[in-house]
Amino acid sequence: MSIFDILGPVMVGPSSSHTAGAVRMGQMTRRLLGGEPESAEILLSGSFALTGEGHGTPRAILAGLMGMDPDDERIPQSFELAGEHGIKFSFGTVNLRNAHPNSALIRAKRDGRGVEVGASSPGGGRIRVFSLDGLPTSFSGEVPTLIVRCEDRPGHVSRVTGAVAAQGINMSKLQVERDTRGGTALMVIECDQRIPYKVKVAISAIEGIYNVTRLNPGEESK
Amino acid sequence: MSAVTSIAGLLKVSAEKKLPLWKTVQLTDCAEQDMSEADSWEKMKNMLSVMREADQSYDSRRRSLSGLSGGDGGKMEDYVRSGRSISGPLVGEIIAAALRMGECNACMKRIVAAPTAGACGVLPAVIIPCGKAMGLPDERLIEALYAAAGVGQVIALRASISGAQSGCQAEIGAASAMAAAALTHMAGGTSQQIANASALALKSLLGLVCDPVGGLVEVPCVKRNAAGAVIALTAAEMSLAGIESRVPPDEVIDAMREVGEKMSPTLRETAEGGLADTETARKFRERDEAAIRHGPGLT
Fold this sequence. Notes:
Low-confidence stretches of chain B: 294-299
Largest sheet of chain A: 6 strands, mixed
Strand content of chain B: under 5%
Helix content of chain A: 25-40%
Distance between the termini of chain B: 49 Å
Order of helices and strands of chain B: HHHHHEHHHHHHHH
Structural class of chain B: mainly alpha
Low-confidence stretches of chain A: none
Number of helices of chain A: 7
Number of helices of chain B: 13
Number of strands of chain A: 11
Number of domains of chain A: 2
Shape of chain B: globular
Oligomer: heterodimer
Radius of gyration of chain A: 17 Å
CATH architecture of chain B: Orthogonal Bundle
Structural class of chain A: alpha+beta
CATH topology of chain B: 2-methylcitrate dehydratase PrpD
Mean pLDDT of chain A: 94
Strand content of chain A: 35-45%
Number of strands of chain B: 1
Strand order of the largest sheet of chain A: 3-2-4-5-6-7
Helix content of chain B: 55-70%
């Protein structure tokens, strides 16, 4: 813990969990989508559903989807700005069982592709993604993280991790989930070192890989 | 230097290395985070700038999304300006500054969490007006922010700075302890006096519950920032006068943790008890959604 976790972060109020964390959720969804969404459906759960409006949570999530940081003073105007950018958005509530009280389910689309991100904001502006496209997972993006969505087939885990190891990167955590046998699989790989672009290129070239996202802390995907 | 997990440790390292307390805090963090002293200083300087910007951007006509907050900082300013203030212009301005910052936060303006967003008004409310009244250069105020952050870090490590975990004592209480430390440094107090002031402030807020009306960071949070700031001033004055906390700072922090553990979950940010469960709060909650949808909104 740094002293700047105590004196900081610089953020738009009123709540680190319901506002700053909500911006981070939107940003995370944008990165997993690979750019600005054309449309977004935001469903709030638990305390987010109960007190989110008064905390500006919907505005904050939308601001994050548009690439704003938690200290961006345009956050309160995100509805109007999204309208100007032609982003279609809607809000609702959902009851996410067993999820942290501060949680949301965000569905976003772009170029005919969609993502569904389930995330929670336990406090201090930090977030945790607990589901991606309906598959359970757990990552925060606070360490370099590689997210690979692919066809469930033998040898994929080995080839993907091989591509990571080839760059001398040490993996600290590896999660693998799939929907059905031979269906879609999700690999989340947390690493000790920054993940370079060539790892993404190498993995994307493997047959049956649908999508690769790199999350390097402090680097926004454009 | 290892991470500082106690106020006693902070004092010991400062004494051994013959450093002021704020410098020990800075050097320890630089070593932990692999950051240069210059970068760290620039970062802290920026925190002071953001605090000032937020304070100056205050608009008393602005209201929060819920309509519960806004305008009180302006009322306090007018009152102080009228010359009728019982405690005089400095204390009046501290109260006004705390309200302004708390309202900025409620109205979605940019603030510095110190240590949390809900308690963001306490520290700037003593640093900015007192710095001005004492004629201190910014360097002194930045040093004071380090002293405050050091105290806050020990509280976070030994206890908590989360209302959901330990109640408001962990937010306004921690902020007040941090502000007392900052103020004591600004007035030229010794490291021992800085530590002592933080203990005196935290003791005064021990047991304070987190009971926000409607679950929003507004009522009573905004006004508790003013109370926390004045308690910080009281604690600093006592410490500078040579008055000691009979219970040492680390033990006070440990007691805060224990009190937090014994606190009912209904009094820890869940908005199920205390002020949040009053008749007025329940009525507010009922019309909450409608008020937000059709209320004044952000202007």
